[in-house]
Write a structure and sequence with these properties.
- Keywords: Cell inner membrane, Cell membrane, Membrane, Transmembrane, Transmembrane helix, Transport.
- InterPro entries: Efflux_drug-R_Bcr/CmlA (IPR004812), MFS (IPR011701), MFS_dom (IPR020846), MFS_trans_sf (IPR036259), Sugar_transporter_CS (IPR005829).
- One of its GO terms (molecular function) is xenobiotic transmembrane transporter activity.
- It is built from 18 helices and no strands.
- The radius of gyration is 20 Å and the shape is globular.
- The chain has a single domain, classed as MFS general substrate transporter like domains (Growth Hormone, Chain: A, Up-down Bundle).
- The chain is mainly α.
Length: 401
């Protein structure tokens, strides 16, 4: 009996990982191609960087619609729709004739990725709760960080052999493989007591007015803004300005993903020992420390390894500590509308982070200084916690187990 249960859990975990990989792989695999895309489309640097932002914005805003649909139609159906749409949009990307067309197709691809992401997070909330869900989210985070570690390297090889288009052909092939996996390996987990779709506005208001959701979604936002800022600005700093090759950039990018992977494997034990709330607080502290170090090293003119890679490595540890714990605490009170809650959390993270990074990109400030400022944002929810109602927050933490 235990073996059967373990086998079922392993199969479910594999499906969940396959679903959440659509988002990071859709971004990371073509990062080494940013300079090539600038030349191919005769575009400005910010326009190519905006193909990442557009993907994230559409993924974030799309969740506001996809979440309630996942509660109404079911997680499995939404996942399958998203995978098919992702494969089709990946294929169409190859035929884009202008940077504007590329952005439109990337927007569709972002909506597709939000379908698979909402479905995966809702399934975890359906099957696990409290501290257990925090542990599952942390393991998922560790597994999906194989994508940032490996995707840029794979992308560099594909670009060298067949050009940037090969990255998107690879994404289409991945979608084809996953649609077969989900079709045979994912059963519907939507609870029978989930609320009707007509209550969507009431549910959204209940979610965003919840003290615990407000606090922990801000923690997730701080972490996501840091990682998106690094993903957006690092090709410029390392390839364009520092002169690294695409393969060298991919290796450095993989190094930070490795830190997240290692931390995510360790985080479940830490959660069991100190609880998800304290784990979140520790992650925020690490991010703030990293921001201070990056800012100091920039003004003192220290080498790039110290001014960029070391602080980003420290902040990546903080990111891994925050995301799994804060996600579980934010979603824990909403078992009857897990898809809607996961969608709202995803929207806060993706849209908020994308808008912040886009706005900061317009500033005439060196990228390293901007990235340091983003990391220091981690100190904001850390400090704000002192001014919240301790009784209310304690109730949220204790309910999460």
């Amino acid at each position: 009996m235990n073996n059967a249960r373990q086998s079922t859990s392993s199969a479910l975990f594999l499906v969940l990982i396959a679903l959440v990989l659509f988002s990071p792989v859709g971004i990371d695999i073509y990062l080494p191609a940013v300079p090539d895309l600038i030349d191919y489309f005769n575009a400005e640097q910010y326009q190519v960087q905006n193909t990442i932002t557009v993907f994230l914005l559409s993924m974030g805003l799309g969740q506001l619609i996809i979440g309630p649909l996942a509660d109404h139609w079911g997680r499995r159906n939404i996942a399958l729709i998203g995978i098919v749409l992702y494969g089709m949009s990946s294929w169409l990307t190859v035929f884009a004739e202008s940077i504007t067309e590329l952005m439109w197709v990337r927007a569709i691809q972002g909506v597709a990725a939000c379908c698979t992401s909402v479905a995966a997070f809702a399934v975890v909330r359906d099957c696990f709760s409290g501290q257990q869900s925090a542990i599952v989210y942390s393991y998922m985070l560790g597994a999906i960080n194989l994508a940032p570690a490996l995707a840029p390297i794979l992308g560099s090889v594909l670009i060298a052999l067949w050009g940037w288009q090969a990255c998107f052909y690879a994404l289409a092939i991945y979608a084809l493989a996953v649609v077969m996996l989900v079709n045979h390996g994912l059963v519907e987990t939507k609870p029978v007591f989930s609320e009707p779709i007509k209550h969507v506005l009431t549910n959204y208001w209940r979610i965003i007015s919840h003290n615990g959701f407000q606090y922990y979604s801000c923690c997730c936002l701080a972490a996501m803004t840091m990682i998106i800022a690094y993903v957006t600005w690092s090709p410029v700093v390392l390839i364009k300005e520092a002169g690294f090759s695409q393969l060298a950039y991919a290796a450095l990018f993989a190094l930070n993903a490795l830190w997240i992977l290692i931390t995510s494997v360790v985080a479940p034990r830490l959660i069991q020992k100190i609880g998800p709330h304290r784990c979140t607080q520790l992650g925020l502290l690490w991010m703030a420390i990293a921001g201070g170090l990056m800012l100091a090293s920039y003004f003192f003119g220290w080498p790039l390894a110290v001014s960029l890679m070391l602080p980003v490595g420290i902040a990546s540890v903080g990111f891994a500590l925050i995301l799994g714990s804060a996600t579980s605490l934010a979603l824990n009170p909403f078992a009857e509308c897990a898809g809607t809650a996961a969608a709202m959390l995803g929207c806060v993270q993706m849209v908020g982070a994308s808008l912040l990074v886009t706005a900061m990109t317009q500033l005439a400030i060196p990228p390293l200084v901007l990235l340091a400022a983003v990391m220091l944002l981690g100190g904001v929810p850390l400090l704000c916690y002192r001014y919240r109602n301790p009784t209310a927050m304690d109730a949220v933490v204790s309910s999460a187990g």
